Amino acid sequence: MQFTGAFTALVTPFKDGVIDEERYRELIEWQIEQGINGLVPCGTTGESATLSHEEHREVIRICVEQANKRVPVLAGAGSNNTKEAIDLTRFAKEAGADGALLITPYYNKPTQEGLYQHFKAIAGEVDMPFVLYNVPGRTGTNMLPCTLARLFKDIPQVKGVKEATANLTQVSDIIEQCGPDFQVLSGDDFTVLPLLSLGGCGVISVVSNIIPGKMSSMCKAFKEGDIATARKLHFGMQGLCRAMFIETNPIPVKTALSMMGKIGLELRLPLVPLMENNEKTLRCCLQSHGLLG
């Protein structure tokens, strides 16, 4: 399986309104040094919704270049406009990404048949591995297990799903209906360990922006059958996972990275800085986990 273990849904650092390439490259390098298994540029955590198409392409290009095939790059390339998704996916392939992360179309709320036809249309134009992204809390649409099973059966490019419902019944249904070769990645940091126990293969993580080594170590421990270590790491990360969602992602994780000196704190509207009380809570959490000097 190509997409296994802990993949970081990378933040996009900004400086004075533009991409901070230097800090972005440093963040990617640190992630790889810490043992992360893969990288995801231009996901939700990367503020893809407020990147121009030119910036979107630049973020993918930088990530692929910096990773330099040391770990897989799964590039965010989805859209609620099928033609736009085709164009972004084509660029991801041309840039050298190992796969494309394709979100279910948001706002226009397609039916299950519409979801199927959307991904089929992209596959008709671009031949590269796809990991579909199901996050109803952001899109308003839940891609059902039967739809995923149909896509996996009919479309060779479809290799797996980032499942961000936090619904373990749905995860179980997906694995049951799609079989063991379908790669199910958690899109929710709280449920990685139970998802692995059902037959999932990893996570696309927010919290691994700040603790890449711990998240990858938990996935590795589980894979090696060291359940006690995996469970210890799971519970050890829960406080940080909660802190990463104290307000809308990626506000807390970018704030945390700035407190750690990894990036400057700059968000794009409509995202705004943490409320003062939440900033204090986050700082205390980072200090208690030994992440601040």
TrEMBL record:
<keyword id="KW-0220">Diaminopimelate biosynthesis</keyword>
<comment type="function">
    <text>Catalyzes the condensation of (S)-aspartate-beta-semialdehyde [(S)-ASA] and pyruvate to 4-hydroxy-tetrahydrodipicolinate (HTPA).</text>
</comment>
<dbReference type="GO" id="GO:0005829">
    <property type="term" value="C:cytosol"/>
</dbReference>
<dbReference type="GO" id="GO:0008840">
    <property type="term" value="F:4-hydroxy-tetrahydrodipicolinate synthase activity"/>
</dbReference>
<keyword id="KW-0028">Amino-acid biosynthesis</keyword>
<feature type="active site" description="Proton donor/acceptor">
    <location>
        <position position="133"/>
    </location>
</feature>
<feature type="site" description="Part of a proton relay during catalysis">
    <location>
        <position position="44"/>
    </location>
</feature>
<dbReference type="InterPro" id="IPR020624">
    <property type="entry name" value="Schiff_base-form_aldolases_CS"/>
</dbReference>
<comment type="similarity">
    <text>Belongs to the DapA family.</text>
</comment>
<keyword id="KW-0963">Cytoplasm</keyword>
<feature type="site" description="L-lysine inhibitor binding">
    <location>
        <position position="84"/>
    </location>
</feature>
<dbReference type="InterPro" id="IPR005263">
    <property type="entry name" value="DapA"/>
</dbReference>
<comment type="subunit">
    <text>Homotetramer; dimer of dimers.</text>
</comment>
<feature type="site" description="Part of a proton relay during catalysis">
    <location>
        <position position="107"/>
    </location>
</feature>
<feature type="active site" description="Schiff-base intermediate with substrate">
    <location>
        <position position="162"/>
    </location>
</feature>
<feature type="site" description="L-lysine inhibitor binding">
    <location>
        <position position="106"/>
    </location>
</feature>
<dbReference type="InterPro" id="IPR013785">
    <property type="entry name" value="Aldolase_TIM"/>
</dbReference>
<keyword id="KW-0704">Schiff base</keyword>
<dbReference type="Pfam" id="PF00701">
    <property type="entry name" value="DHDPS"/>
</dbReference>
<comment type="pathway">
    <text>Amino-acid biosynthesis; L-lysine biosynthesis via DAP pathway; (S)-tetrahydrodipicolinate from L-aspartate: step 3/4.</text>
</comment>
<dbReference type="GO" id="GO:0019877">
    <property type="term" value="P:diaminopimelate biosynthetic process"/>
</dbReference>
<dbReference type="InterPro" id="IPR002220">
    <property type="entry name" value="DapA-like"/>
</dbReference>
<dbReference type="GO" id="GO:0009089">
    <property type="term" value="P:lysine biosynthetic process via diaminopimelate"/>
</dbReference>
<feature type="site" description="L-lysine inhibitor binding">
    <location>
        <position position="80"/>
    </location>
</feature>
<keyword id="KW-0457">Lysine biosynthesis</keyword>
<feature type="site" description="L-lysine inhibitor binding; via carbonyl oxygen">
    <location>
        <position position="49"/>
    </location>
</feature>
<dbReference type="InterPro" id="IPR020625">
    <property type="entry name" value="Schiff_base-form_aldolases_AS"/>
</dbReference>
<feature type="binding site">
    <location>
        <position position="45"/>
    </location>
    <ligand>
        <name>pyruvate</name>
    </ligand>
</feature>
<protein>
    <recommendedName>
        <fullName>4-hydroxy-tetrahydrodipicolinate synthase</fullName>
        <ecNumber>4.3.3.7</ecNumber>
    </recommendedName>
</protein>
<keyword id="KW-0456">Lyase</keyword>
<feature type="binding site">
    <location>
        <position position="204"/>
    </location>
    <ligand>
        <name>pyruvate</name>
    </ligand>
</feature>
